[in-house]
Every structure is written in C-alpha cells, then in structure tokens.
C-alpha cells in the first residue's frame, strides 16, 4: 500500500514537472523567432521517453485555445470591417472622378511646361559648359606655371646660367610637375629633365677643362705678378729698415754694396716707380674663376661633388708635374729660371685662391701634399741645373730669384725652410764659380805683372798706391821722389781683387735672413778658400812656370811678404762690413799667413833649384884639358863667368829676408863644390895630369875668393868658405904631395886632411898615376931609368896599397 502510494506520488510529481517544462517550451516558441525554434524543439525529444506525445497533446490544446481567441476577436471586429468596405466602395466613384481631373490637369500642365523644359535644358547645357570652362581655367592655371618654369629653364640653358637652371629643375620636379603629373606633356618634361642634367654636367665639365687650360697658360703671368709684388714688399721693408738703422745706429759698412741694392735686375728706385705706376693685380684680375665655381655648384646640386673634386685634384696634380718639369737649357739664362719660378708660383697662387674661395674643393692637406711633392722636385731640379752654372752673376741672380720665390710662397702660407737650406748649397756653388772667376783674374794679374818694384814719381802716385794697398814704410816715406816701392804692381791688384771677392761673396748673403755673425763666418770661410786654394794654387803654378827667372822669384817672395802683412787689414775689412768683433769666440781666422808663407817657401825652393840649374849649365861649359903639362896660370873662363853671374844674382837678393839670401848663397856654393868634386871623380875620366890638377886648383881658389868676398851679408867668419873645404883639402894633398902626413894623421880629429875620404883620395890618385905614366912614356923613352920617377912611382904604389887597406877597413867596419 505504501509502495503504491509512493509510486503514485512520484508519478504525480514527475507529471507536474513535465507539464511545467512543456509550458515553458510553449512560451519560448511563442516569444522566439521562428529561425530559433529548432533548439527548443530538440529539447522536447531529449527529455523523457514519450514526452513528445504529451507535448503534442499540450501543443494541440494550446492551438485550440488560440483558435477560440481568434474567433472571438473576429466576431468582435466583423461589423467594423463591413462598414469600412461600404465606405470604400463609395470613395471609388469619387476617386475615378478625381483621376479624370488629374489627367486633364496633367495634360494641360505638360503642354504648358514643354517650352519651359526646352529652356531649362538650354540652361543646363550652358551651366555644364560654364562648369567645364571653369575647370579648364583652373587646370590651365595649374599648367601655366609649369610651362612658364620650363620656358624659364630653356632661357637659362641658352644663356648658360646652369646653376639657376638646376634650381629651376628642382622646383619643376618637386613643386610644379607633381600638381599636373596626370598630363602627358608633364610626363615628357619629367623624362627630359635627367637628360638636361647630364647635358649641364657635360657642358660644365667642358668649361672646367677650358678653365684648367686657361690657368695653365696664365700661370706664368700670375706668378710674375705675385713675385713682383713680393719683391716690392721686400724692397719697401728693406728701405724702411735702412731708414731705421740710419736714424738709430751706425750703418753696417758695405752691407748694401757700393751701389743701390739690385734684386732680380731691378733697383730700389725702379721698383718704387714701377709700384707707383703699375696697378696691383691679383689672380682674380688675370683669370676668370667663375667656371670652377659654377662647375662646383652644379656638381654639388647634382649630388656628385665628390666626383668633381676628385677630377679637379687629379687634373691639377697632372698640371703640377708639367709645371715642375724644367726646360733642358734652363740653366743657361736667368730668364729660364725666372719663367720656371713664375709658373710654379702661379700654380700655387691659384690653388691658394681656390682653397680660400671654395669650401672643400681643395683642402689644406691636399695643397700641402702638392707643395711637398713640388718642393722635392724643385730642389732636385735646382741642384742639377745650378751645378751647370759657371757664371757667378747668373748664380747670384738665381739666388735672388730663389729668395723672392720663397718669400712669395711663404706669404701664401707655404713652408719654405728647405729652400733656404738649398741656398746654402747654392752658396757653395756660387763660391766655387767665384773662385774659378778669380783664379782667371789672378792669373791675368800675374801674367801682366813686370815683377819689378813700383816706381812712383810724385805724391799723387804714391797716395794712389797706398789707397789701394796698406803699405807703410818709414824709410821709404822719407825718401825723395821719384822712388820705388818694394812690391810689384800685382800686390795692390791682388789685394783689391780679394776685397772685390769679399764684396761679391757678401752679395749672396743679402736677404738670407742670417745674423751678422753667420754672415761674418761665411765671408771668412769663403775668403779663406780664395786664399788657401785659389790664390795659393795660382802662386804655386806661377812659381813653377819655366819663364819665371830668379829675379821674378825674388820679387814674388817680396810680394808674398807684403801680402802676408796685409792679411790683418783684410780681417779688419771683413769686421767693418759685418760689424762682428774679431774677439768673438767662434770667429774664423783668415789663413792667408800660411798661404803666403807656403808660397814664399815654394819660391825659395825654386830659387835654390834654378840657381843650381844655372850652375849646372855653366859647369857643362867646362872644357878642361886633363892631360895638360902645366896650368894656364889663370882661372877657367866658364868659372869666372859663373862667379860673375852669382855675384850679380846675389846683389838682387838684397831685398830678400837675410836668411833666404844666405841660404841661397850657401846652397849655390855647396852645389858648385859638389859639382866640381863630381867632375874630378867622374868614372869616365880615366887619367889626370898634375898640370890639370894645378888648373883645377886655380878655379877652386877663385871659388874660395868669391866665398870670402861675402856676396851676401850676414855670414860669420869663413862659414861660406867651408862649402869648398873638401875640395881644398883634397887639392892641397895632391899639390903638396903630403901623403905621409895624411896617412899618419888619418882618423885623428886634428888631422890636416880630415875632410879627405880615403876612397876619394884613392880614386883621384889612381887617375893621377895613370896620367903620370902616360906622360912619362910620351916625353922620354928612357924615363924609366930616372931615379926620381922610379922613386915617385914606388911611393904612389905604396900609398895606393895603404889607401886600399884603409878603404877595405872602412867597408868592413861599416
């Protein structure tokens, strides 16, 4: 019972839930759009089995319920519907009547509006034309500026205003053409503009090439103008400095020479006049730089500036190499050097102008690189070509050109220290050419000299000589006119030429920006070279010349003595020029003293040599009859001539220093004694008679008398006679026939015949022995029976044996 009740309760509760669910579904179907009913109906079939049947039942019940409600509503409104239909039927008749009226009105209206329509269409057509015209004007207003700009572009191209043309192109491309880009003519314009740009690039590059060719042609004139201006500026500064020096201090003697300064062939006055008369020109006045500016701007606008810069620099490097290549004969004239320098200066003046007038076309690094390359080439060229110069005037003009060249480029900011260093090398070359020139001058002076004392007839002539040469001699000054000065005419000429050389050497030192001490040192060194090398060589060559005799040699010795004395005046002369005290630590001394001493010693040696040669010439004239029985009783003629020659020669030596004359006299006597001794001992002479010995003795006596007559003062006692002591003792030994004394005293310091050598005595004795034998045979066939002759022969044989033993003893001892 309970189970049944529970089941009934459960069925009842399930039935209520089902009914509630179906009710919800129906409400959802009624309220939901038909397209969304599908999921709702699906939930009916997803529930309990047979639920859809109960749902269908429920649905049918709901439909029937709604049908009853619809029927009720229709019944309620049916009368009103009928009334409305009745009303509508009444209105239809009125409507048909109204329709007829409207049609009639429409017909009448159409007839009336047909004309208006025609007029309206005409108005519309006019309005369309008006709108089209306005549109056309508007478009033309957009196109006209484009065409005007293009026309302007063509005019600019025709007038070669390419930079403005490029700017116009930029405006066309960026502003005007984009506004009307849809038109074909604009497209044609846009396609034409790149071609025009290329044409402009080509034209501007052609102008640049013409410009480069123009500056290559005008570099000479530009450089000439720049160097002239630098020269005028330097001349003006030197004149100002000179005025300051004159007003403040004592002027340096001779620093500007004895004539106005000349630079590059122009005097100061001429330079001033030219500066006043000629208008100052610059590179811009001589060359039109607009092509390079224009080309630079064009390539900058076209975005190709780097290409232009590289091309310009490459071409300028090529031109620099051409400019730096000198002509092969440049060293022959100063004009060749001047043209070379003008071209280089012109080149770098243009580069300096481009550097400052443009921004970045050339840089300071580029110009410095060009200058360093050029400087190395210039120095090499000048070294080579200056070495060919043999004219000191040309070298001096070259130096002036180098100084102006360096000053000009230094004014444009280029370093020129290496050029001034090169000038020291050129200075050495200049000194060499000066030395060669003065060697010819000295040679001419020596060839034209008469090598005799200078005669002066009056006071004026004396002062004229003294003004040219520092000569002071109290004794000669006291003498009456006419009188003679001890030196020859070449001495004042040599002294004057040395001063001229110093002036010439000083000219090179001008404008080198060197101190007085350096100039003093340069002058002294160059003067030392002149004295020690050139003048010394000329003197040595002069002394060695064959035509220079003893008289000339004596005069040369006197001349060198006076020139040596004048060296201190040359030092004072240089000191006055440079104003540098000789007491300065590093002051170079003049070596003229040693030069003239060496020349004097060479002349003295040549005197000794020529005297000996002259003695040999007289000796060769000797013609002794070695077999004579008795002497002539008087000295030989050749010897008397020789003594007379020596006597007259030594009288000329009175002006020589005492020791020189004494040495010459002693040398001549010794050589004469030696020559006479050699004549006796000549191996080709086989026999000598006692008569020949007597004759020879007479000649030696004359030599001794000449020596004792003191041909040259200053010898003490019989010093000069000692030159013949060997001959005298040998001849006395044979004349006295004092062999016993000789043999007994041999080797003793007090020996009477100490100077007689056993070998010499033996050689002469054998010759005398052979001569005596030959004489005896000729004079008497019975001479061998004479007792005296036999005894003398035995004595000679005994003496010969003893002499040979002495000679052998000496050889063994040695």
TrEMBL record:
The keyword Transport applies. GO terms for biological process: Golgi to plasma membrane transport; intracellular protein transport; vesicle tethering involved in exocytosis. It comes from the Eukaryota. The keyword Lyase does not apply. Signal peptide: none annotated. Keywords: Exocytosis, Transport. Component of the exocyst complex involved in the docking of exocytic vesicles with fusion sites on the plasma membrane. Belongs to the SEC15 family. This is Exocyst complex component.
């Amino acid at each position: 019972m309970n189970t049944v009740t529970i089941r009934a309760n459960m069925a009842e509760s399930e039935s209520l839930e089902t009914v509630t669910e179906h009710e919800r579904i129906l409400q959802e179907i009624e309220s939901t759009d038909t397209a969304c009913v599908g999921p709702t109906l699906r939930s009916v079939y997803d529930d309990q089995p047979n639920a859809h049947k109960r749902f269908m039942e429920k649905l049918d019940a709901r439909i029937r319920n709604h049908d009853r409600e619809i029927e009720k509503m229709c019944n309620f409104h049916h009368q009103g519907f009928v009334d409305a239909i009745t009303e509508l039927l009444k209105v239809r008749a009125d409507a048909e009547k109204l329709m007829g009226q409207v049609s009639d009105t429409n017909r009448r209206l159409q007839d009336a509006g047909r004309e208006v329509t025609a007029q309206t269409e005409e108005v519309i057509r006019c309005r369309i034309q008006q709108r089209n015209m306005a549109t056309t004007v508007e478009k033309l207003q957009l196109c006209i500026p484009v065409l005007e700009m293009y026309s302007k572009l063509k005019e600019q191209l025709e007038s070669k205003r390419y930079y403005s043309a490029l700017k116009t192109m930029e405006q066309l491309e960026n502003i005007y053409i984009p506004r009307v880009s849809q038109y074909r003519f604009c497209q044609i314009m846009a396609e034409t503009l790149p071609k025009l740009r290329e044409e402009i690039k080509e034209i501007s590059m052609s102008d640049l090439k013409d410009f480069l060719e123009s500056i290559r042609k005008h570099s000479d004139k530009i450089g000439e103008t720049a160097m002239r201006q630098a020269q005028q500026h330097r001349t003006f500064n030197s004149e100002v400095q000179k005025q300051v020096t004159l007003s403040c201090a004592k002027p340096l003697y001779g620093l500007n020479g004895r004539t106005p300064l000349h630079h590059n062939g122009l005097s100061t006055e001429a330079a001033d006049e030219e500066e006043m008369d000629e208008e100052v020109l610059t590179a811009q006045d001589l060359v039109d730089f607009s092509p390079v500016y224009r080309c630079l701007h064009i390539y900058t606008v076209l975005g190709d500036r780097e290409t232009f810069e590289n091309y310009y620099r490459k071409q300028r490097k090529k031109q620099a190499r051409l400019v730096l290549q000198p002509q092969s004969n440049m060293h022959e004239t100063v004009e060749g050097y001047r043209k070379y320098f003008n071209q280089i200066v012109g080149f770098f003046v243009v580069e300096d102008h481009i550097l400052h007038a443009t921004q970045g076309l050339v840089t300071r690094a580029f110009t410095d690189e060009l200058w360093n390359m050029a400087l190395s080439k210039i120095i090499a060229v000048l070294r080579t070509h200056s070495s060919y110069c043999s004219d000191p005037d040309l070298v001096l003009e070259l130096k002036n050109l180098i100084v102006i060249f360096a000053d000009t480029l230094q004014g444009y900011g280029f370093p020129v220290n290496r050029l001034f260093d090169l000038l020291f090398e050129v200075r050495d070359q200049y000194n060499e050419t000066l030395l060669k020139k003065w060697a010819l001058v000295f040679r001419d002076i020596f060839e034209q000299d008469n090598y005799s004392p200078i005669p002066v007839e009056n006071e004026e002539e004396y002062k004229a000589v003294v003004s040219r040469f520092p000569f002071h001699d109290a004794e000669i000054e006291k003498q009456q006119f006419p009188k003679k000065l001890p030196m020859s005419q070449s001495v004042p000429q040599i002294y004057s030429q040395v001063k001229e050389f110093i002036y010439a050497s000083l000219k090179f030192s001008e404008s080198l920006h060197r101190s007085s001490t350096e100039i003093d040192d340069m002058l002294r060194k160059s003067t030392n070279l002149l004295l020690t090398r050139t003048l010394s060589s000329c003197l040595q060559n002069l002394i060695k010349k064959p035509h220079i005799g003893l008289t000339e040699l004596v005069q040369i010795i006197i001349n060198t003595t006076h020139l040596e004395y004048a060296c201190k005046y040359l030092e004072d002369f240089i000191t006055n020029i440079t104003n540098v005290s000789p007491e300065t630590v590093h002051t170079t001394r003049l070596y003229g003293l040693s030069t003239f001493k060496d020349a004097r010693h060479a002349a003295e040696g040549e005197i000794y040599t020529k005297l000996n040669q002259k003695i040999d010439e007289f000796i060769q004239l000797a013609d002794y009859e070695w077999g004579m029985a008795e002497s002539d009783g008087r000295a030989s003629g050749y010897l008397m001539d020789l003594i007379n020659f020596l006597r007259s020669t030594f009288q000329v030596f009175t002006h020589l220093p005492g020791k020189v004359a004494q040495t010459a006299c002693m040398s001549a006597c010794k050589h004469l004694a030696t020559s006479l001794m050699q004549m006796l001992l000549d191996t080709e002479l086989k026999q000598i008679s006692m008569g020949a010995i007597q004759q020879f003795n007479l000649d030696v006596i004359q030599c001794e008398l000449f020596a004792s007559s003191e041909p040259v003062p200053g010898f003490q006692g019989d010093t000069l006679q000692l030159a013949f002591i060997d001959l005298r003792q040998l001849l006395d030994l044979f004349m006295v026939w004092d062999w016993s004394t000789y043999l007994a005293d041999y080797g003793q310091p007090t020996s009477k015949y100490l100077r007689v050598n056993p070998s010499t005595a033996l050689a002469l004795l054998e010759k005398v022995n052979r001569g005596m034998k030959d004489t005896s045979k000729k004079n008497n066939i019975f001479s061998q029976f004479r007792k005296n002759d036999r005894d003398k022969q035995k004595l000679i044989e005994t003496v010969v044996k003893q002499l040979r033993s002495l000679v052998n003893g000496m050889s063994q001892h040695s």
